[in-house]
Design goal:
mainly beta, 9-stranded parallel beta sheet
Length: 209
């Protein structure tokens, strides 16, 4: 049946295993499917008005390139799943925020460029040991969360965009914060707590903190 002008859909904790038929929801702007048993990313490409989509606390193990997202999507939340592999090939270019907190991601080294409009990347509490310095971070990125991982070296060759306002790498395995890493001029928050750092000496003053 058609959904008319329905804009919000909440399907929390319903035991849903799969979601395949989404025709008739072209006016839906926000869809929340938290706390179900979905193990495969559903096809939401037909939801042409969708702005936010949340699939938190489900059973996803992979986020791979066979997905298709609507161009309207701005926020994608996949917190509290079991995602090990992440491939951003299917991400739409208009996406502004992606939440992958509390998963099992071991490496974050996407083979393609991340969406150019991406402003927030949240990877809190995963199993990341190395944050690949060759990742071309979007020029407009403002927030990068890498807290509670297993990162022991924050490579000085990482090109942090000047737009970055928040960098969180607390609760990792860092022993020093390499002084050759240039800090973005717009940085407002730097979180390094609960590491093993004995010397902190950024290469340039962080005047905006």
């Amino acid at each position: 049946t058609g959904s008319g002008g329905m804009q919000l859909i909440f399907l929390y904790n319903m035991g849903i295993n799969e979601l395949e038929i989404l025709n008739g929801f072209e006016y839906c702007q926000y869809m929340y499917l938290t706390g179900n048993n979905i193990s495969k990313m559903p096809d939401i490409s037909t939801l042409s008005s969708l702005n936010g989509f949340a699939l938190n606390r489900n059973n996803l193990t992979d986020f791979v390139n066979d997905i298709s997202l609507p161009e309207s999507l701005r926020s994608l939340s996949l917190d509290y799943n079991r995602i090990v592999n992440f491939d951003p090939t299917g991400l739409n270019d208009g996406l502004e925020a992606i939440f992958l907190n509390n998963n099992s991601i071991e490496t974050f080294n996407p083979s393609i460029k991340l969406p150019s409009n991406l402003k927030s990347i949240h990877l809190y509490n995963n199993n990341i040991e190395v944050f690949d310095p060759n990742i071309p971070l979007p020029d407009g990125l403002t927030s990068l969360w890498l807290n509670v991982n297993k990162i022991s070296v924050f490579d000085p060759s990482i090109a942090l965009p000047s737009s970055l306002e928040e960098l969180q790498i607390g609760s990792n395995l860092l022993t020093n914060f390499n002084p050759s890493i240039p800090m973005p001029s717009n940085l407002l928050k730097l979180e390094l707590s609960h590491n093993q750092i004995t010397k902190f000496e950024p290469v340039n003053p962080i005047t905006s903190l």
